[in-house]
Design goal:
- There is one protein chain.
- This protein is mainly beta and 433 residues long.
- It contains 5 helices and 29 strands.
- The model is unreliable at 1-21 and 42-61 (pLDDT under 50).
Length: 433
Amino acid sequence: MKHNIFILLLACFSFMQATAQDMTTIHMKDGSSMSFENGRHNVTNIRLWRNTGEMTISSVYNNYIQMENVDGDYCALLSFDKGYTSPTDNSTLTICVGTTDNLTLESCDFEVPATDLEIDDRLYFQLGAAEMLNKSSWFKMYRPLPVVDYPLKKGQTYYWRPVMRVPYLQGGQSKEAIVYDKQAYSFRIPLLMTESGLLPLEQCGKDVVYPDTAAWSAFYKQYFPGVATDKLTSLGKLWTLWIADHQSEVTISQDLTFDDGVLHLVSVVPDAFYRWITSREVVINDTTQILDYARCTWEVINNVDEKWQVPGNSYIKFTSSTATVNPTFTLDASEVVPGMPYMLEIVFAPDTSEENTKPTKLQIKGNYNDGTTGTLGESNYEIAATELSRLALADPVTNLVSLKIQTNILVNQNSKYQRVIRLAEVRLKPQGK
């Protein structure tokens, strides 16, 4: 069996022992010889390997890699200690970077000298497109930060490997040994569905079926001509609700795999989806649909006695934080179809504890998709505390995005009204286009 034998020879020669040319020559058993220039202080530190190509250098110490998304593109910051021992004083440490595992100088995309990367006894360098590098959070932190104009592609794995270039003389000729670190280090630029721009962030997930851009455009043109696209974003949320039970009604045209899930693109939005959204009642009766609230606390009252006829036998109780302020809260109504008129009905529960029989006085406002706000119905409504109340507006509402409900009670009316709102549910019933 053939063995590769590595010979380590340390020779320290005084000034008198050095050759006239300040060289040290080593004669090998096989008859060959190698000559080395003496180092500093006329001492030569010689490390010899029978097969130079198998020389290795120590692994990176304390290396770390950070990645940052800047304006939709990624840059990477690599840093590590200078933990290398040069075989000769005039050896050169470089870093090669590329997209091939087991990276070599022949397969790398570029090579950069370590001397260009030194900052405070560590080596740093930043990779990315030149136009975005100075926008990264590291640019000011590590100034002057060595940078390499090297655009990084999403979903691509990159490798970097320290390399030692070791010059030596053999037979009077200058040669160079290439010594690689024993491994190539790697980092991967993520390919994320949430960054793809193919669907809203809230619709992203592990396994998603969603129309492509062309499918939505055709759907908007057919059913919502003249409506600005930014007013139709709520349809994405409605699609997610619909597709959960209707996946068999669509044809998937393309599967895209991301690090955070798989996106199944649909090339046609079926007519069945339009029929569903335009016939669907929007129901608001859950705490997750509370967008904000002020000057109050709220709690859910469950297991309400059926004698009160409260829908779902539960309601949300909003109570003013003090006796002199009016509680207010806003409800999410974004599941309505833009341009579709809806009849609005709000159901208020009674005081099921039967401790307070005073009514409340409140007003209702609507927030619309054009940014405007307006009072819905009367300026004030009186709601009984002793029985279930159904408040139905006489006129339909269109393009709502949220509802704001608050009591409207003056301080001198405290003896007549209570500052409590007991919301059972809100229903928006479509009236057809």
